[in-house]
Amino acid sequence: MKKPSETDDYYERLGISKNASLDEIKGAYRKLAMVYHPDKNPGKENESKLEFIAVGEAYELLSGKGENKNYQNLNSEEKFDYFQKLFGITFEDMARITKMLSESDDERVRYLGKILKRTIGGLF
What we know:
This protein folds into two domains: 1-73, DnaJ domain (Helix Hairpins, Orthogonal Bundle), CATH 1.10.287; 75-124, no CATH class. Helices cover 61% and strands 0% of the residues. It has helices at residues 10-14, 22-36, 45-62, 76-87, 91-102, 107-120. The relative contact order is 0.13.
């Protein structure tokens, strides 16, 4: 199974099917939140925090608690617009930032660039 930050599919992040019930979504979220909680991963707090955030983001959108209750019904162009609204930057800006992080001399910064690229889904 991929880590939650390695996919841009929110269902895949939680390891559930696209027709999962709200109870299944909640159960998968709770299970993964415990697995990736930074307090449960001493020595790997930064990595687990990224995964924990990715799981939370998926739960928020799929459970209907997020701003966009119909994420799964958006087409690609609408997802780009949603991304820009959510983060306040375009995909082009994100690509530039990700490239800059990935080329850093600092190993931790390069790792952040790798996680960011996987989270965005390699769209750039």
